[in-house]
Amino acid sequence: MSIRLGDIAPDFEQDSSEGRIRFHEWLGSQWGVLFSHPADFTPVCTTELGFTAKLKDEFAKRNVKAIALSVDQVDSHLKWIGDINETQNTAVNFPILADADRKVSELYDLIHPNANDTLTVRSLFVIDPNKKVRLTITYPASTGRNFHEILRVIDSLQLTDSHKVATPANWQDGDEVVIVPSLKDEDEIKQRFPKGYRAVKPYLRLTPQPNK
Question: Is the pTM of this model over 0.90?
Answer without folding.
Answer: yes
